[in-house]
Every structure is written in C-alpha cells, then in structure tokens.
Please model this.
Amino acid sequence: MDTNSPSTPALRPPGRPIGRPREFEIEEALDKAIVVFSERGYHAASISELKEAMGLAAGSLYKAFKDKKAIFLASFDRYKQVRNALLESEIAKGENGRDKIFRMLRFYAEASEGETGRRGCLVVGTATELAIADADAAERVRLSHARSEALIESLLREGQADGTIAAGVDPPQTAKILLCIMQGMRVMGKTGADTGHAFLVAETAMKLLD
Model:
C-alpha cells in the first residue's frame, strides 16, 4: 500500500491521542507556566491565567494535565531540568575545583539580578509556600537541595585534591553553607536588591575556601 497516497489517513505516533499537544509544545507551555508560578506563586496563579500564558486551549490543557497541581509539578520538573543543564554547562568550563565553585556561585548571582532575580526561583518559592503542606512539593525541594549540596561537596573535594581549596575546609559543612548562600541570593534577588549585590556576595563566599 502506498502510504504517500493522498487518500491514505495520516499516521499518528502510537500512544498519543488525537488533540494531545506534542512534547515540544508541552515544553514551551511549561516554560511559560514557570514564569507565572515564579512571579505569582502557586496559590495566586489561576487556571485561566495559566491557560492564557501557556497558549493552550482548555481541551488540550486538560488532556496534558489533570489539574493545576499537575501543571505545577511538571513546571517544577521542567525548571530543574533546564537550570541543571545550564549549570552543568557553566561548571564544565572551570579549570579546577575552586574555579568551578566560583562559576556556580556566579551562576546563582546572575540569576539573582534584574528581571530574572525579581521573578524569583521556583525551588525557593516552593520551599516557602508549599513544602510544609504538600508531600510531592516537599520531596521535589528535598531532592533539589540534596543534589545541589552533593554537587558542591564534590567540587570542594576536587579543589582540595588539585590544591586550589584549603585542606582544612570541611566539605560537607561548607557545602551546606554555600547552598544557603546561593538560595539566599535568590531570595534577595526577589526583593530587587541593588545591582551587583549578589556578585559581591559570591566573591565574599569564596573566602570560605581559604
């Protein structure tokens, strides 16, 4: 049978119902939902506001997501996927353990400036608004913090091994402190802190490695 014949029905990928948004459409929609949730918070963001921002018709929205919480959790996962990839790319440019830590601090500092800073961090927002009452949100925040802390600790140990970080630095405890500093930058950015403030914090935090 000629599958290119005009009379032949178009073939659909198996398992994807008619009308369900494609994967790339979902990712684009989630990127827009992230902005709404970051700026407004979970409770203040309405379904109508999300639908408008995401550019999906009501039918397509509910075929892709069960409810607002499902949109939020998918947005959180997408946020972490994108931010983790960007961070890993930046860290990979580092020449040694110390430089990689500095690049990580500057990555957070940059995200804490300007419009991105005022929009806020979805992880910080979730931790303060939802983690105490929602187990799914709390677990995502926990995993995010654990991953970041483990990454920082591994970079600290790398720096000690290559001689760029003092041997007397305690990797587990210093990793916790640096994570708090990074998350604190995002909180300060939400308040519209002065331009350059976060970068000064990043430079000062490096003294912990001496």
User: Anything to note?
Assistant: The CA atoms of residues 156 and 170 lie 9 Å apart.
